[in-house]
Amino acid sequence: MSVYEPDVVRRLLSALEPKNSQKKFEASWNSAVKKRVESWTGRATARMTNPRPRRQYEWEAEIVEYINYISDKTRTRSTKALARLCLDSKVPILGPHFLPPSYLHARKRNQSEPAINPETLYLKALCAIHPFYYPELAKCPRCNGTDNIQWDGWTGTGPRDVHGLMVDEAAIGTQLRCENCKNDATRKEHEHSVKINLKGYCFATTNPDFWGSWPHWSIPGDIPVFFHRCAVTRDLFNLLVEMRPSSTAGSLAENIRQLHLLEYHRRKLSYLQAWKSHPYDVNNYNDKPISNDVVSEVFQDFVSATRESESEEYLRTLSGVSISFDNTFRAATKATVTSREKKKSRVLKGGIISLMNENSEIVGWVSQFECI
Ligand SMILES: [Zn+2]
User: Fold this and answer.
1) Inside any domain, residue 79
2) Which of 16, 30, 276, 291 is the most buried (most CB within 10 A)?
3) Against a cut of 0.70, is the pTM above it?
């Protein structure tokens, strides 16, 4: 985790340029940041009902510019190049998880009491999913090919919000283009590919389609887990899949809401301690912790992607000399499914029949649906 101070990094990198081009370097950096913020906020106002603060976009655009700089300095320009390009030791390597500057930074860098906008309280950390940090992502999710992959710049829609355990975060990704899939639109999926209905040849690293063939445990580093409606940090994901079986989605969502509230008040206290005054804009608190719907979705996805195939494989390894049939799981008939129209129905009518061997291991099970 790195604290990213835009002014410090920009001036540091500018100082590494020749004296006569430093001003030009800073001017082109600033105009690129401005352009990026405008392209993101233009889309955001049209699409989103809950727009993010402009300050958040500005801070994120500075990070994007910094990653462009370090990845450009280390990019191999020719396939014939023998040596790998390295970064100058004067250039700091920050990321991929960026934290906003805290009050400590503001206080230590200003002689007078700086005019602090409480918006700083609400800046979200940013996770950058870029090949500079994760070169192993250069794999096509459709054909599993690694030979003809191009990185096609940042995702045009800008950062995505990510649900976190104590506080929400954001993530920004890049676009991967597979030339093999582009040249052959009807190309058959690789036999190990999980997503058999994947279309197109361009995939964003913040899209669940990109991660379809990655088991959850193999997702590298601190990359969040992405779903179509939302994304969750690794900490929150691990907590949900561990805790969900012993708790309801609603009570888990409430636990997480309380943790968010605790973190919010902790930050408010640190503001008061730093400035001995009251934050004057508490309405800016617009954190939206995870809902019980999303908790269920995360757990369902984990079960179908990881646990189902594992337990099926395990069941096939079991055998028994004597098998007992038992209709023990009658409690399953009590489970109701609520439709979108709030209509409740019971899917299982006769419970679950379990097959047990002499070692009390379940070697198979049959569920009785409505027709039985
Ligand atoms: Zn491909």
Assistant:
1) no
2) 291
3) yes
**Are residues 325 and 235 located together in one domain of the fold?**
no
CA of 199 to the centre of ligand 1 (A): 10
Provide, for the chain, the percentages of residues in helix, strand and coil under a 3-state DSSP scheme, each rounded to the nearest 5.
45, 15, 40
- What spacing in Å lies between the alpha carbon of 178 and ligand 1's midpoint? 5
Asked if residue 279 has a cis previous peptide bond (ω within 30° of 0), the answer is no
Regarding predicted confidence, which is higher, 203 or 333? 203
CA distance 223 to 353: 40
* Residue 212 placed within a domain: yes
Domain count, the chain: 2
Residue 152 CA to residue 249 CA, distance in Å, equals: 38
Highest mean pLDDT among 34-48, 175-189, 306-320, 336-350: 306-320
Tell me, yes or no, whether 201 and 171 share the same domain: yes
Residue 198 structural domain: 93-303
User: Distance, CA 140 to ligand 1 centroid (Å)?
Assistant: 5
> Does residue 131 surpass a pLDDT of 60?
yes
Distance 161 CA to ligand 1 centre (A): 28
In a domain, 232, yes or no: yes
Q: How remote is the CA of residue 127 from the centroid of ligand 1, in Å?
A: 25
Percent of all residues in the chain with a pLDDT value above 70, rounded to a whole number: 83
| 298 and 330 both lie in a single domain | no
